[in-house]
Structures are given as C-alpha cells and as structure tokens.
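Because showing beats explaining, we think one record worth quoting, sequence and backbone structure tokens together, and here it is:
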Amino acid sequence: MIVISNSSPLIALSRIRKLEILKRLFGTIYIPEIVYQEVVVQSTDQVQKESIVQGLDDFIFVEQPTTEYVFTRSIDAGERGVLNLAYDKPAALLLIDDRKARNEAKEHGFRVVKTSTLLKRAEQLHLIHSYLEMMQELRLLQIYLP
C-alpha cells in the first residue's frame, strides 16, 4: 500500500518519539520534498529532526512530485505536495490532519487518515499502551490534533 504523509503526522509522532508507528503500520511512507523541508530543514526541534532523519531511507522516502494540479481549496504547499505526489504514485492512503486538505483529498477520491486515528489503531494493535496518554503527551507539547 502506498502511503503519503503530510507534515503534521510526522511532527506529532516524532515529538512523542513514536514515529516507528508509521513503519509498523505501513512499512513504507512517502513524503514530498516540500514536507521534508518543513519537518527537517526548517525545523528548530532537535527531537523531531533527528527522529525523522533516522527514518529516511529506512521507511520514509522523499520524492518530488511531477504533477502540478490546481486545487479548488486554498491549502498550504505541503498539502499540495502530498496531493500532487498522490496523483503521481497513485496513493492508497494519505496522512493529513488539516480539515480543508482532507476534504480536498476526499473530493479527489483519496482515502485520508488523521494522526489521532493512527494512534487509536496503534493502541488496538498494542503498538502503544494508551491512546489517551499519547494525546495528553501531545497536548503537553502544545500539539493539538483534530
């Protein structure tokens, strides 16, 4: 299954040191170059940067989309990159938290999952002890998921 992630799932999971959940759930994920720039190059959070860099070429692969689709909603560059890469691959699943971007992706026929849903699934599969504890940890880091 081809899975493409936006920035927010990577940020949230890396900050609580649970990025390996993506590897355990999906094996491999792809991110567009713009997302890599956002979560690694432009980030000032060392835990986030190190965690994501460790995943590169292990289970996180960076690709530059060749598609330049024009979307109906105003979504940010990372989200546009995810959707364009989804057209290139084509993706079976997109990891996106932003509501407008999720709606845009669904209108284009993509299946979308948000980070909180991934954490619930990880709890069901016993990959984490508690969904609620993970959400509390994210809140303490001032990361709020839909």
User: Anything to note?
Assistant: Residues 77-88 form the longest helix (12 residues). The helical segments are 7-15, 20-26, 33-41, 46-55, 77-88, 99-107, 115-124, 131-140.
